[in-house]
Structures are given as C-alpha cells and as structure tokens.
Design brief:
215 residues; mainly alpha; Four Helix Bundle (Hemerythrin (Met), subunit A); 2 domains; 9 helices; globular
Length: 215
C-alpha cells in the first residue's frame, strides 16, 4: 500500500456529523443549549480552517512544485475558500438566533440553521472524497513514498511530544488499527527523539495487539 495522507478525514467526518446531530436535537429557545451549539461550531470551524491551511501549504504546494501544468488542486482550494464563506454564514445564522426575541421565530431560525449546516456537511463530505480520490493519487503518481513521508516530518518537528499525544488522543478513537499504527510508525521514523514520550503517553489508548505490533 502506498504512503497515504488524509487518514485524519475519519475524524473530520465524525466531527462534522456530531455537530449536525447536535443541531438537529437542539431546543433553540433554550439559551444554554444554543450556547452549546455556538461553542461546538466555533471549535469545529477552527479545526476545519487549520486543516484546510495545512492541505494548501503542505500538500497542494507539492503538486505546484512537481508539475506546474497540473491543476487538480485548484478546485480543492476553491472549495476551501467556499468553506470559509459558508462558515461565516453559519456563524451569522447562530448569532441571529441569539438576537431573535420571539420563541417561534427562534425555532424557525434554528430549523433554517439546521438545513444550512446539513448542506455544509454534504458539501464537505464530497470535498473529502475528492481529496482522497483525486489529490492523493496524483501525489502518489508524482512522488515516492519516502518523499511524501517527509511532508509529515516537518509537522512533527514543529510539535512538542505533548501536542502530538493530544492530537493522537483526538484522532485514534475514529481510526482502525492500521491507521493508528501508521501514525505511530511515522513518528518513530521521522522524530525518533520524541517517540518514547509519545509512546508512553498514548499506550493507554491502544489495544494489546497494537502494542505488540509496534513495540
């Protein structure tokens, strides 16, 4: 199997759908419930923007450097710009519910927020699919596995062991044994000086078979 990016999309997909479920069951007349939606949305928006920036800066640049005639990334980067605009509109919609004095109108606004966000999720899932079925094969065609692996080396070099552990604690519940092993093998290979601390910090999140396979 070739070197693979986008394993974290399993977490991104789950996070998108978790908020969709939260909005679906929210009583928008309940201020504390609405505050919960606002906090969850702000956290998701921050994650999505950071993820898009990483892809633009670390992955798409590889296509630009290796094959200036390749434009397969252009649609993805446009999607990222559209995503920013959609996030702004969703934020405005949530704020509008806070400002609405009438309960009936709050519920109507909440329903329209749900429809807007559900469409946003659908667009994002299609976007993730395109990245994994168009961008990833193009990267694999143009680069060797060792060259692709070095992209992650730069990220791990910038992160403290505690930051890596925190990232893995978020990602691992959404991944299978092969995904988790791939992350840990990358860390051991790329930043061996940090692996011991990461390994000790993440062992409690892993099963016995995984531990035996990596130890």
């Amino acid at each position: 199997m070739r070197y693979q990016f986008y394993r974290e999309h399993k977490y991104v997909s789950a996070a998108l759908n978790d908020l969709e479920r939260l909005i679906a069951r929210t009583d928008f007349c309940d201020l504390s419930a609405l505050e919960g939606v606002k906090r969850a949305f702000e956290s998701l928006a921050e994650m999505l923007k950071g993820h898009a920036q990483y892809e633009n800066d670390r992955l798409h640049v590889l296509l630009k450097q290796k094959n200036s005639s390749s434009t397969v990334y252009a649609h993805i980067e446009e999607d990222h710009s559209v995503q920013d605009r959609q996030l702004t509109e969703i934020e405005k919609s949530i704020q509008g519910i806070f400002l609405e004095p009438e309960s009936a109108n709050k519920m109507e606004r909440g329903y329209h927020l749900y429809l807007m966000y559900r469409k946003f999720v659908a667009d994002n899932l299609a976007h993730l699919h395109e990245e994994e079925t168009v961008i990833l094969p193009e990267l694999q065609r143009l680069y060797t596995d060792s060259e692709l692996q070095q992209v992650e080396a730069h990220a791990y070099e910038e992160m403290a062991p505690e930051e890596i552990i925190h990232m893995l604690e978020i990602l691992f519940p959404h991944m299978n044994v092969h995904d988790r092993r791939a992350f840990l093998m990358d860390i051991r290979s790329l930043v061996p000086g940090k692996f011991k601390a990461v390994w000790e910090g993440i062992q409690s999140k892993m099963g016995g078979n995984e531990l035996a396979a990596i130890a």
